[in-house]
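User: My instructor asked us to take a sequence, write out its structure as tokens, and then describe one feature of it. I'm not sure where to start. Here is the sequence I was given:
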Amino acid sequence: MSAPLLQSTTVPLLEQVVNFTQARHGVLAGNMANLDTPGYRVRDLSPEKFEQSLKQALDRSRYAMPAMPGETGYDRFAEVKQSMQSILYHDRSDVSLEQQVMEIAKNQMRHNLALTIMTNQFQLLKAAISEQVV
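Assistant: Let's start with the prediction itself. The structure tokens for your sequence are:
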């Protein structure tokens, strides 16, 4: 996302949450598909590590110099995108259908919340641009 107008909103942060939940959903769905595969080890993306890297990126961006108007600027979430590739881990426990369903449901709620907030941000932005009262 490169629009300077959106960089000052929560949209880039929410974009990272949506990207993470999409990736995690794929991993969890793979666990469900391999439920009966002998010797299969559960995989997952760590929400805790993702949240930690997101928090660090936000803390760093508070002290970063803002880009001048017209410049593309610094992607404050570049390291978060990179960290998503290294937080995949293999669980040494048995694959539990109930556990996987619960994780998928929690992941779906996080995804829906991020999309709802993002939609509200865009509606507010649209109202501000068109000078409408919300």
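For the description part of your assignment, you could build on this observation: Residues 97-130 form the longest helix (34 residues). Try explaining in your own words what that tells you about the chain.
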